[in-house]
Every structure is written in structure tokens, then in C-alpha cells.
């Protein structure tokens, strides 16, 4: 195998032409799993695209809350698009080689959008916090402009930290194995293949996991502590139930996203107590399922979106019936 050599810091940096993704080679019933992933991807794209279209084309939904919902839907589509089609291509074409630069791009996009998924859930928690704890000042605090700034800053921050973490991967030399035991160009499995010191990359991965999971998750927990305190101070039982009902769907999203990822990263990355095969399968499920579940559990169950989605379905149904009626008469 020929290698690309560059000179940096008085030492040769050896970059291979690419890497081989071998995470699913030993899995039984792998064809069934990839059929399941194809279904997950279709549901992700269909329902999140529906949510985005409903919000974009209904001016009455151009509010801070639905900006946060649309932000989550966009992130969901891109997050699954950067991994699932590549996994299916490897299975169908039997070509598991990923060029070096493309590997870094995929790594960057994946971790950027995992970060954004985490921040998007925190932004939704912020919206619930303001709506329930500060109802009289909700419209003055949580404006469309302030929500746009929060969403924009989350994208800039995720872009910056993941670009730095991915950029320092170019300082590693890969002179031995180029077989990545994961389902994509995963950060830790790739830097562990390096034949020079990867302390900086390990530190970046540890810091990134705290920034992605620890910070937003802590904010969400503190938000719901404040929400619960406010709810149980309400005198009306109906108001309590109404406030708690609006939070249940969001808490389901939080649990589905954070519990598997925190478990995998804690026991797999730091403690290495998870079998590598189980880690690959668990991480792929933990990454691919939330974008599929989010619009069904949360977005499409929101009253305003549900009403407009049903209206759109009825309109299309009536349109199809009229076309059939016209054809029969002609």
C-alpha cells in the first residue's frame, strides 16, 4: 500500500489512502438489520420533511417554539443521512473502503450533528422552561430573534469544536492497521489505529463527550427541576396536568437520546467494559433511532402541527377523489 507522507514538526506524518470499515462483518442476520435501517431512514426523511414543510409554509407557526422544532427536524434528517446510506452502500456493494479525506468529512459531520441534536433538545427544554416558569414574560423573553440567536450560536459552536477535533486527526500517523471497527469513520476507533502519540485526540474526545452530553443534559435536568417546582406551586390541578403533559413527549426524546449514548460512551469509551461488537450495534441504534422517533413522538403530536398535518392529508385525499371522479365522468 502506498502512503501519502507529509513533513510536520521534524517527523514524518503518514496518511493512508483510506480506511476499511469492518464493524458489521461478524454480525449474524446482518441483512435483516440493514433492511430495518433502510426503513428507519425512510421514516426519518418522510416525517421530518413533513414537519419542516408544515412549519415553513404556515406563517402562524413562525414562532420561537416551532423554530426550535424545525431546527431539530433538520438536524435529524442530516444526522441519519451522513451514516445510514453509507452503511447500506457497504452492505449492498460490498465496498467498505472510505478515502482518508472523506473519512474525516464524515467524522466531522456526524459529531457535529450529534452535538446539534443534543443542543436542540436543550433548546426545547429552554422553551418549556420559559413558557411554564415565566408565562407572563414568555413573549418578551423568548422572541423569534432571541431563539434564532440561540440556534445560530449552537450551530457555530458545534461547527467549531468538531472542526478542531477533526483537524487534529491529521497530526496522526497510520502506519499499521487501517481497519476501523465501527459502522462509520468513528473518532475513537480511528485515532486508536495511530502509531504515534494520540493523547491530544483522546483528550479532545473526552472533552467533546462532556460538551455534547454533559452540558446540555445537565441544563435539561436543571430546567425540569425548575419546571416541577413551578408546577407543584400551581393551585389548579388542571393547570398542573396541562403543564406536565406538554413536557412528557420532550422527556421521552431526552431519555431515548441521552441514556443509550451516555451508557455507551461511559462504559465503552472510558471504561472499555462493552464488547466491541455490542458497542458498534448499540451505538448505531442509539444514533439512528432518535431522529426517526423524534417527529413521531414529539413534533407531529404537537397540537398545531397535528392539526395542519391532518388538514394536509384531508386536502390531498379530497384532491385524489376529485381526480378519480373526473376521470370516471370523462
Instruction: State the helical fraction.
Output: over 70%
- Average pLDDT across residues? 83
- N-to-C series of helices and strands: EEEHHHEHHHEHHHHH
Within the largest sheet, what's the order of strands? Answer: 4-3-5
Strand content: 5-15%
The span between the termini is: 68 Å
Find the structural class using helix and strand composition: mainly alpha
Number of helices: 11
Number of strands: 5
Taking the sheet with the most strands, its summary is:
3 strands, mixed
The poorly predicted ranges are 1-10
Return Rg in Å.
23 Å
Task: Using the alpha-carbon principal axes, give the shape.
Answer: globular
Provide a descriptive summary of the structure in words.
The longest helix is centred in the middle third of the chain and has 34 residues, at 100-133. This protein is mainly alpha-helical. Residues 1-10 have low confidence and may be disordered. The strands form two sheets. The protein has a three-stranded mixed beta sheet. A two-stranded antiparallel sheet has the order 1-2. The protein contains eleven helices and five strands, in the order E-E-E-H-H-H-E-H-H-H-E-H-H-H-H-H. The chain has helices at 30-56, 64-81, 84-93, 100-133, 138-141, 144-167, 187-191, 199-232, 237-270, 276-297, 303-329; strands spanning 4-8, 11-15, 18-21, 97-99, 179-180.
Amino acid at each position: 500500500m502506498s502512503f501519502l507522507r507529509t513533513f510536520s514538526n521534524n517527523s514524518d506524518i503518514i496518511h493512508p489512502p483510506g480506511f476499511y470499515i469492518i464493524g458489521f462483518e461478524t454480525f449474524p442476520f446482518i441483512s435483516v438489520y440493514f433492511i430495518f435501517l433502510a426503513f428507519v431512514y425512510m421514516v426519518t426523511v418522510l416525517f421530518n420533511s413533513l414537519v419542516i414543510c408544515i412549519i415553513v409554509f404556515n406563517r402562524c407557526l413562525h414562532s420561537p417554539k416551532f423554530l426550535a422544532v424545525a431546527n431539530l427536524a433538520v438536524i435529524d434528517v442530516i444526522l441519519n443521512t451522513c451514516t445510514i446510506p453509507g452503511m447500506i452502500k457497504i452492505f449492498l456493494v460490498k465496498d467498505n473502503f472510505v478515502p482518508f479525506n472523506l473519512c474525516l468529512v464524515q467524522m466531522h459531520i456526524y459529531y457535529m450533528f450529534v452535538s446539534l441534536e443534543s443542543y436542540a433538545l436543550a433548546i426545547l427544554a429552554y422553551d418549556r422552561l420559559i413558557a411554564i416558569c415565566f408565562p407572563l414574560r414568555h413573549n418578551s423573553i423568548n422572541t423569534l430573534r432571541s431563539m434564532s440567536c440561540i440556534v445560530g450560536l449552537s450551530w457555530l459552536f458545534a461547527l467549531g469544536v468538531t472542526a478542531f477535533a477533526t483537524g487534529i486527526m491529521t497530526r496522526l500517523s497510520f502506519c499499521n492497521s487501517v481497519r476501523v471497527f465501527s459502522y462509520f469513520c468513528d473518532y475513537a476507533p480511528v485515532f486508536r489505529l495511530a502509531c504515534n502519540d494520540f493523547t491530544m485526540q483522546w483528550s479532545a474526545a473526552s472533552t467533546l463527550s462532556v460538551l455534547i452530553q454533559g452540558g446540555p443534559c445537565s441544563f435539561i435536568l436543571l430546567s425540569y427541576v425548575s419546571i416541577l417546582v413551578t408546577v407543584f406551586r400551581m393551585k389548579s390541578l388542571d393547570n398542573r396536568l396541562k403543564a406536565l403533559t406538554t413536557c412528557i413527549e420532550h422527556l421521552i426524546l431526552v431519555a431515548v437520546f441521552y441514556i443509550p449514548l451516555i451508557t455507551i460512551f461511559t462504559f465503552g469509551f472510558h471504561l472499555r467494559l462493552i464488547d466491541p461488537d455490542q458497542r458498534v450495534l448499540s451505538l448505531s441504534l442509539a444514533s439512528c433511532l432518535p431522529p426517526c422517533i423524534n417527529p413521531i413522538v414529539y413534533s407531529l403530536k404537537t397540537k398545531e402541527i397535528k392539526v395542519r398535518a391532518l388538514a394536509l392529508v384531508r386536502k390531498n385525499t379530497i384532491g385524489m377523489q376529485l381526480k378519480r371522479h373526473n376521470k370516471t365522468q370523462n
